[in-house]
Task: structure prediction
Amino acid sequence: MAEPRLKTVDKAKPPYPMSKFPKTFVETVGLEIVFMMATSRHPALEGPEWERIFAKAIDADWKPSNVGLDDIIQGAFAWGAKTVKATDPHGATAVRLISGRNNPEYSFQTIADTEDGIGRQVLQIWNGRVEGLRAKFKELRTVVLLKPQNFDAEKLPFTVFEFETVRYPEDGYEWKKNKQGNLEGYDKKTGDHRFTWQRHGSQFTIKEAIPKEVAKFFIKKPPQLPEKQILDLIGYDNSWIEIL
Result:
């Protein structure tokens, strides 16, 4: 029997193609970073702040989640956001992303007795999280901000890129311990090092190649606003503090 022709119901399209950010994206991100540096004594630009900035820059909703893979939502599309310090944000070719705590003993109530078995369990935990979210959203992405090691220079480089958040074939990697006793996963076809898992703490790290399509920009370090000037602008006085 021939298959019936059906009208396409799901016509949702992503807000922009992968890593081809909106025209005002860099300006919005840059303004937010400048404001942070001008008003913070110790600017760091960590995860939650980057999530908020990215959501604003693409006109999406910032909804921090426990999983950490769908913190930014726009309709049927979701992003997880990460920041990574880099010696050369513009010249880096790969990045290591801390991607959660995958604990086989918690998830399976037991841990495999071989390195490859443990590696499969670690990937099964990751894949389970991704599958749950991909069933909920049409597309799942990870957006990464490469930032300088510190904010001391007068001209600061940044790079932003994104990639699709995917499952990994559980039998596609060979696992072995490194000198530190951590488990490393290598692609069986290419030999590339892709994953690291720490038994102590269960931290799971994914190594990603940086794609060619990225947004690179510099930000001029702004002067830091004096504390008194900020307090004067908001009309602060001692009555704001009530001692019990």
In short: The helical segments are 25-39, 47-57, 104-107, 115-134, 227-233. The chain has five helices and eleven strands.
